Amino acid sequence: MSATRTAAKPTSARRPDPLDVFVWQGTDKRGKVMKGEQQAKNANALRAELRRQGITPKVVKPKPKPLFGGAGKRITPLDIAVFSRQLATMMKSGVPIVGAMEIIANGNKNPRMSTLVNTIRADIESGSSLYEALSKHPVQFDELYRNLVRAGESAGVLETVLDTIATYKENIESLKGKIKKAMFYPAMVIAVALIVSSILLVFVVPQFEEVFKGFGADLPAFTKLIVALSRFMVSWWWAVFLGIAGVIVAFVMAKKRSVAFSRFLDRMILKLPVVGQIMHNSAIARFSRTLAVTFKAGVPLVEALDTVAGATGNVVYEDAVRNIRDDVAVGYSVNMAMKQVNLFPHMVVQMAAIGEEAGALDTMLFKVAEFYEQEVNNAVDALASLLEPLIMVFLGVIVGGMVVAMYLPIFKLASTVG
């Protein structure tokens, strides 16, 4: 199906008025009560449409907005993936792109997503191409997405490209989910351990300290340390809390605003044991799948590499891909350029070489992506199994150590009496 379908009206056409959502209730020709909700310019237009369908409207009123969360949840990459697949499916079935957009907007449960789709539909009705309409929303549709759509429209294979984009986004989000899972579990356990320790120091240890004062004996060194720490927490817990919060906020802000700090973190994380290898494999998988998708869609190789650089998720690989792009631009083969950056495993370079020689670079890169995505899955599962006993030991040392410190004076007193 040709991408020219997206230009249904002249470019000079006036942008359509935004539609409101109305809830309605009425009766059909048999007297059966019908109700629903529908978008329309106004209540009178909706009444006329209902009568045309053989329904006598009784109640037509704007849909009330909820008191909380009226704007809806934020738009996620998975929302964009679902939108892409729905649009591709309907266009393959012969539904015009404007009609498909209307169906998707009306059926979406997220108000923000519905508004976004309606805005895109209005731009297309005004004469814009899908690429031009999406370019007005760079947060939701990144450069990679827009370039793929532009290539699909130019080649007349927009439906196929949209389906490929949906699959790509689903795979990438699944990969991101695995990485987050590997990081989230130990972070949460450490946070819980610190919270439990703080509660013990602020509320439990002072009770034991009152008991110890009646012993009239010198406390063990370990117990003195815990008591001193408890006194500090009781007096300065607010400063500790503000300090931790300040460090977290400063870290997040520095990562977002400081390019140098962000690059430093990306380099350091690749050097961590176990986790570093997972991040290496993740970057290779994202590079391979993204380049395969863009190249398959017909995006020129140099332009595709430029887009892929930002999709690797790590500055080390981003710099490497930009070097590959520069080498390819002056005539080097992809596999030779990959070999020069000395970052990609031998298997990846050889698969790229075979793909270039056979004229099936995208197919080989898809296979590389699948292999490294599976490697990430296996590594994350292995990491979870490895962390469980280490976390148990960590919790035992922190919480158990405090309990032992509190009971040491009692044991000492008992042995003295005995």
Explain what you see:
The protein is mostly helical and 418 residues long. The protein has 15 helices and three strands. A three-stranded antiparallel β-sheet has the order 2-1-3, covered by helices on one side. It is flat. Mean pLDDT is 81; it is low at 1-16. The chain crosses the membrane at residues 184-205, 235-254, 390-410. Residues 83-206, 287-409 form the Type II secretion system protein GspF domain. Belongs to the GSP F family.
Mean pLDDT: 81
CATH first level of the largest domain: Mainly Alpha
Structural class: mainly alpha
CATH superfamily of the largest domain: Type II secretion system (T2SS), domain F
Strands side by side in the biggest sheet: 2-1-3
What is the CATH topology descriptor of the largest domain?
A: Receptor-associated Protein
Rg over alpha carbons: 30 Å
Q: Tell me the count of domains.
A: 3
Cα separation of the termini:
93 Å
DSSP E strands, number? 3
Protein traits:
Receptor-associated Protein, membrane, 3-stranded antiparallel beta sheet, disordered N terminus, mainly alpha, 3 strands, 3 domains, 418 residues, single chain
How is the topology of this model organized?
Elements: E1 20-27, E2 33-40, H1 43-52, E3 56-62, H2 77-92, H3 97-107, H4 111-125, H5 130-135, H6 143-155, H7 158-213, H8 221-257, H9 259-270, H10 275-296, H11 301-309, H12 315-329, H13 334-341, H14 346-358, H15 361-417
Quick synopsis:
With 418 residues, this protein is mainly alpha-helical.
